[in-house]
Each structure stands twice: as structure tokens, then as C-alpha cells.
Amino acid sequence: MPSKPYLNFADVQKIAAAAQAEAIANNWAVTIAICDDGGHLLSLQRLDGAAPLSSHIAPSKAKTAALGRRESKVYEDIINNGRTAFLTVPFVEGMLEGGVPVIVDGHVIGAVGVSGVKSDQDAQIAKAGIAALAQ
After folding, report:
1. What is the rounded distance in angstroms from the CA atom of residue 116 to the CA atom of residue 87?
2. CATH number at residue 94
3. Which end of the chain has fewer surrounding CB within 10 Å, N or C?
4. Based on the structure, what is the number of domains in the chain?
5. DSSP 21-77
6. Sign of the alpha-carbon dihedral angle for 76, 81, 85, 89
7. What's the domain of life for this entry (predicted)?
8. Are the CB atoms for 31 and 114 separated by under 8 Å?
9. Residue range(s) defining the domain that contains residue 20
10. Pick from 82, 132, 77: which is nearest to 99 by CA?
């Protein structure tokens, strides 16, 4: 039977700490969500000053990236390029940039979603968190 890596508690803490450090270094008030490959929430941090709504958006971005096996920006681009029918896709709510899958050995094992600043900055924070796994 094949096996694959998965996010354990130590991995989640490492990602969360690195993402938080990136946000704080840039003075960005955001919410950071980490989920497993099924989109189930493993961690949620709402930094001081982050809008309450961001605590709903960040997990949605993470879930979208995990279930879709790609960055949530892909879906935002599809919609912005005129395929508005994509809005009806079930289980996909966070179709904004800022959700990034965690990929290890070719397997999507989870995702990080960030909300609170510009979308490319949200993605920057998510990627900084994920990069910590390689260290």
C-alpha cells in the first residue's frame, strides 16, 4: 500500500511561527490558517489588529488550496478572466489569492491561507510559512 507524508503538530507549529514572523516583520495584521489535505483546520492565528472577517476568509483560502491542490489564485484568475460560472463550484469558497498548498515529495499534505493585507502579501506570508518546513 502506498504511503505519503502528512502534517504533524510540530510541522504546523513551524509553519505558523514562520508565517507569523513574516507578517510581524512587515507590520501586517492578518489571520493565518493551516489545514490538512482534506481542508480540515489545524491552526488559526488572528494577529492583533486583523479584521474579524479575516478569520473566516483565511481558512476558506487554505481549504480551497488544499482541496484544489493548487494556489487559490488560480481560481481568482479563472473568474477574473470571465468564467463567472466557476462561482458555482461546490465546496470552494476562498477563491482569492492567499491560499497556498503545502507540497512534500509531490503530495499535497495541507495548505496555508492568509487574509488581511493585499492578496499578494497574503500569499507571501503563506509561502514564508511553508518554506520553514524545508529548514
Report:
1. 22
2. 3.30.450.150
3. N
4. 1
5. HHHHHTT---EEEEEETT--EEEEEE-TT--TTHHHHHHHHHHHHHHHTS-THHHHH
6. negative
7. Bacteria
8. yes
9. 9-132
10. 77
Percent of residues, the chain, with pLDDT higher than 70: 100
* Residue 4 within any structural domain of the chain: no
Q: In whole angstroms, what is the distance from residue 27 CA to residue 8 CA?
A: 28
Q: Return d(Cα 19, Cα 25) in angstroms, integer.
A: 10
Residue 111 confidence (pLDDT): 98
Interstrand relation of 31-36 and 107-115 (parallel, antiparallel or unpaired): antiparallel
Residue reference for cell 476568509: 57
Does the residue 1 lie in any domain? Answer: no
Residue 3 lies in a domain: no
